[in-house]
Amino acid sequence: QLPQVSWIIPGGASSDHAGAGGNDGSGPSWVASIVNAIGNSDYWANTAIIITWDDWGGWYDHVAPKVINDGVSWGSGYVYGFRVPLIIVSPYAKAAYISHTTHDFGSILKFIETTFNLPSLGYADGPADDLADCFNLTQTPLTFHIIPAALDATHFLNDKRPPTDPDDD
C-alpha cells in the first residue's frame, strides 16, 4: 500500500550520484523497477511518477540560468544552476512531450499542493509552476508499457548489501 505521496530515493549503489564511491551503475534499472512496479499495479490509473536528479552530467549547460528576483530569496534574488532532467510517467502525461517551461524542484511541491488543494509552503514552491503543461487530464489514459532494464526488481529486493548514503562522496 502506498500513501497519496511517496518520496523514493535509492541507496548509494543505485543513486547515479556523480562521484559516489559505491555507485555501481544500476541506477537506470532501479528507476525502471520502481516505475514497472507502479505501472503494473492498480495504482497506475491515478498516479504521477516524477523522476529527477539533484545534479547530472558534466556540470555544463549552454543555457544561462534563470534569475528569480522576488526580493525574498537571499535578498536580491535566486539564481538557478544548470538544468537537470525531469521525467513524468503517468497515464495522463503528454506522450513524447518536451516541456520548454522552466520547472523547479519546487514545482514538485506546487504539483502536490495543486493536486490536493493544499496551501503553499511559501518558499521553494512560491515562484514555481505546478507542472500543468506536462499533463493532459482529458486525454484517454495511456496504457503502461514495461520499461526494459538490465536488472529487474528481484535484483534490488534481494540485494543484501548494507545501504549507503546516495550523496556520500
List keywords for this structure.
two-stranded antiparallel sheet, alpha+beta, two-stranded antiparallel ribbon
Plain-language structure description:
The mean pLDDT is 86. The protein has 169 residues and is α+β, with helices and mostly antiparallel strands. The longest helix is centred in the first third of the chain and has 13 residues, at 27-39. The protein is globular and about 45 Å long. The strands form two sheets. It has a two-stranded antiparallel ribbon. Strands 2-3 form a two-stranded antiparallel ribbon. 14% of the residues are buried. It is 17% helix and 7% strand.
Question: How many strand segments?
Answer: 4
The level of helicity is 10-25%
Using only CA atoms, what is the Rg? 17 Å
Largest sheet: 2 strands, antiparallel
Give the topology.
Layout: H1 27-39, E1 49-52, E2 67-68, E3 78-79, E4 86-89, H2 105-115, H3 153-157
Antiparallel strand pairs: 1-4, 2-3
Give the gist of this structure.
With 169 residues, this protein is an alpha+beta fold.
